[in-house]
Design goal:
The structure holds two protein chains of two kinds. Chain A is mainly alpha-helical. In chain A, 65% of the residues lie in helices and 0% in strands. Chain B has 20 helices and four strands. The longest helix of chain B is centred in the middle third of the chain and has 32 residues. The chains are: A mainly alpha, B mainly alpha.
């Protein structure tokens, strides 16, 4: 399972970085989203992988998974979700005012 | 005991901002009154915390959870200094925005400013690495909205770049924190320091990756070459007062670098060693060169101010990269100076922009004097504090001819660039005899920044002595770690 998750994170990151290097806002935003997915999974597994173990104290539990990364990843998801909404709106605004969706600025601006 | 006052600098703006949005949405006068009163209260609060910080570092537990488990805030000399600098700058920026009417060109300027202050103050106070990330995001999301305040096509497009760059930075931040957590099992900074100092050799590689990623994030915030590309476009297109407020944003990167670099990854820790200091040193030299060339090549005053901000970060990081008491003292002194001087130049650029018309510039004389004072400060010429700051940084590297060469040549390039810009602005074009628009509040705000520079020069002795004690406490963070009252972990 470790290999599978590691490969998933790697693929998501690679795809995210590739898309971020495009010159149009839509692929860049998609790339940022992919990257934030990769980051979220990465935070989640930083507490080690544990199958069928509770995060909250339970009398019948035989062991526990680390609850802190789960709390951290919730925070990270909320923040990246909000930030993505902001950049989508700003990209829409700049597309509507400038008439194109190129990311780069002309010289001297 | 001041206990609960420690969290007040983050709570006050956090309460005020929603109040301004919800209750005074339609009344600009009330917004201005409440927001200004809030910032003045913040300044008073910050000053009293500064007095209190002269004693031992003091801990504030959120929800009264003990240190490594709950989030803690920590008031020490460095965080108190940053609070005062932030509140002072914010007050000036706010008065300027009111005086020029910048806060009427878009909605919610004051609420956004307060949210920005909440993020800044929180980031300076927190002693928890993940909490630092959260406050970074708070100050960033407020800065996104402030940056595109008043909108306009160019500003929106520069804003998209700025947001994309910072989202990437946030992702790196999270990866770094997850790496550190997966190895050490903690996110409390003092606890991290203790655990990284005794890390088993097998985990050293992960810690090094985490440390470098973390420093990359702070380098993005601090506009260290080669991660400075977001800065010129953002600062040059942002509204004048917002760009002036952003003078403190790059310092957040410097603050985090100093805090993490002295507490968690000091050069005497075996896991990271001199790695961070080396990267920072070469990055700082490159930043200084790129900034100076940018100043020489800039065609508009806001762009020149943006590149001057980059160059000043280079000087600052040169001081930091030595990680000695003397170096941190110099860096802190230069940080206060460059915040005030950089903000002053952005405000002056905005004043000049509003005075320029088809017939030339109205009220040239005053503007030229203001520009001259700001230029002297930024280039680091006597008699203003920039000279003292640069001299202190050069003293830190007194054995290193390369540093001296780069600082002196870059200062020369900046003098040339600033002089050329001044000639273009004030000596060319027709003379406009129409009186300048009366903006007493805006001019007062600008003069206040320059007065701050003069005060920093006149009281350089006592200020440096105070900063030296601050730097000594940073280099030897025993008291900071002890204040966390961490439980003693038995060796495995």
């Amino acid at each position: 399972m470790e290999a599978l998750i590691a490969a998933t994170i790697g693929l998501l990151t690679a795809g995210g970085i590739y898309l971020m290097l495009r010159a149009r806002t839509f692929p860049v935003i998609l790339g940022l989203t992919l990257l934030s997915y990769a980051v979220n999974v990465f935070i989640f597994v930083s507490g080690r992988l544990a199958v069928n173990l509770p995060a909250i104290i339970d009398k019948t539990a035989t062991g526990y998974t680390d609850p802190l990364p789960q709390a951290l990843v919730l925070t990270a998801i909320v923040i990246s979700f909000g930030m993505t909404a902001v950049i989508v709106l700003m990209a829409l605004g700049s597309w509507l005012t400038a008439g194109h969706d190129r990311v780069d600025l002309e010289d001297g601006q | 005991m001041l206990s609960h006052w420690i969290i007040a600098p983050a709570v006050l703006p956090a309460v005020l901002a929603p109040l301004i949005v919800l209750a005074f949405r339609r009344d600009l006068t009330l917004q201005r009154v409440f927001s200004t009163a809030g910032t003045i209260a913040l300044l008073v609060l910050a000053l009293s915390l500064l007095l209190a910080s002269a004693r031992e570092p003091e801990l504030y537990r959120l929800g009264d959870w003990p240190a490594p488990f709950g989030i803690v805030l920590m008031l020490d000399r460095l965080s108190a200094l940053m609070l005062v600098l932030t509140a002072g700058l914010a007050l000036v920026v706010q008065l300027y925005a009111i005086g020029t009417g910048w806060d009427t060109r878009g909605k919610h300027f004051h609420a956004l400013l307060q949210f920005q202050l909440m993020g800044l103050n929180g980031a300076f106070l927190t002693a928890d690495a993940f909490n630092l990330f959260v406050f970074f995001e708070v100050l960033l999301i407020a800065s996104y909205a402030l940056m595109i305040h008043g909108a306009g096509g160019d500003r929106l497009r520069a804003g998209v770049q700025y947001v994309a760059f910072n989202l990437l930075g946030s992702s790196l931040f999270l990866i770094a924190l997850a790496l550190l957590y997966s190895v050490t099992g903690t996110l409390n900074m003092a606890d991290l320091a203790g655990r990284i100092a005794v890390i088993p050799p097998g985990d050293v590689a992960l810690i090094r990756v985490g440390a470098v990623l973390l420093m990359l994030v702070f380098a993005i915030k601090g506009a260290l070459v080669p991660l400075q590309f977001w800065l010129p476009g953002t600062y040059a297109t942002a509204p004048g007062p917002v760009a002036a407020l952003f003078a403190i944003m790059t310092k957040v990167g410097a603050y985090a670098m100093i805090r993490m670099g002295t507490l968690v990854f000091p050069p005497d820790v075996a896991a990271t060693g001199g790695l961070i200091a080396d990267l920072l040193f070469w990055g700082a030299l490159a930043t200084l060169i790129v900034g100076a060339i940018g100043v020489l090549g800039a065609t508009t005053l806001p762009r020149l101010a943006a590149f001057a901000a980059i160059a000043s970060m280079g000087t600052l990081f040169l001081g930091v990269s030595s990680f000695t008491e003397q170096g941190i003292t110099a860096a802190l002194y230069y940080m206060i100076h460059s915040t005030l001087a950089g903000a002053a130049l952005f405000l002056i650029a905005d004043l000049i922009r509003t005075r320029q018309g088809a017939q030339g510039m109205a009220g040239k004389g005053v503007m030229a004097c203001l520009y001259l004072a700001a230029a002297i400060a930024l280039a680091g010429m006597p008699p203003l504090s920039g000279f003292l700051g640069k001299l202190m940084v050069m003293q830190v590297w007194s054995q290193n001819a390369l540093v001296w060469g780069v600082i002196l040549v870059s200062s020369f390039l900046m003098i040339l660039g600033l002089a050329r810009m001044g000639t273009d602005l004030f000596w060319k074009g027709p003379v406009d005899t129409t009186p300048a628009p009366p903006q007493p509040l805006a001019l007062t705000a600008t003069f206040a920044l320059l007065a701050g520079l003069v005060a920093l020069t006149v009281f350089a002795g006592p200020i440096t002595a105070w900063l030296q004690t601050t730097a000594a406490a940073l280099i030897d963070p025993t008291a900071y770690i002890a204040a966390n009252a961490l439980p003693i972990v038995e060796a495995k």
